[in-house]
Predict the structure.
Amino acid sequence: MNNRRLSDIREFSQTLTLLIIEDDELVLNQLKKSFSTLFTNILISNNGFEALDIYYKYHKKHNKFIDIVFTDLNLPIMNGLEFCEKIKLDNEKQIIIATSAYADINNLQKIIDLGIYKFIPKPLNFENLFEIIIKSLEKIKEEQKIIKLHEELTSIKNENIRLFEQASLDKLTGLYNRRYIDDILSKYINCNFSLIFTDIDYFKDINDTYGHRVGDEVLIEFAKILKNHTRSYDIVGRWGGEEFIILLKETDVETTLFITEKLRKTIESHEMPENIKITSSFGIHISNLNKSLEEIIDDADENLYYAKKQGKNRISYNFEIYKEEN
């Protein structure tokens, strides 16, 4: 065996635990002596029942399973196959190396079904056994590398999500913030889309009467209504203060007005915190490819102002107040 390979695996194996289950004391001592060149932590048992107790006590104490199990199949009190069946129920990936001098065809089929890593007939060839142990250790090491890599990738992904949320989401409402909406709008400039500005009517009165905490609760509830009553692919954001923005991609005038009117009615009938009733006004721009982004935003904003000027709780499109047909 390559000395470099053995050195690398020995350094790794000394962090692991091996359980040997063997009722022949002479063989048990030989196994323990042979494996001690690799493992510093070796647990032993001479029957399956005691081994099961050792296995689960180890798990309880260390919050992990024993790394490798080496077991004879012909054991007193509880045989090796019964032991393997029980631990495989809780640890399907457990690496088990099994041995026996009397394995019949039925036992061999059970060994296959249980997914036992290797079966070695007795009498044991310790040179072959040592190579099998080395390979099992390399298998564990590789799996741990994969797990660690997955954890690192998950950590990076979670950090990227956190940074995205920090940069792109409004802290209070959880909707997209103005910076993100500006970026999205710049990408939509050559597409057909509808832009809706909306804000809460008389919101200053809510803050003055109930305080800013209740005002924040109203903003959060208002944001939920916008999010829950638009389509999953629509973009909803907080533009600033009590003003919000909705972007509907590839949406015609009739659908835009239908969605906006549904929002207006829902908000009007919704009971806010402290039993507050609110209304909201809406300004709509249906994109014109000949207009700049600034002109599109100004048009929607000016339509919102027009809706407020006409009495609030209204929808303005092309500076006309929308009235739903009965």
Q: What stands out?
A: The longest helix spans residues 126-168. The mean pLDDT is 89. The chain has eleven helices and eleven strands. The first strand starts at residue 17 and ends at 21.
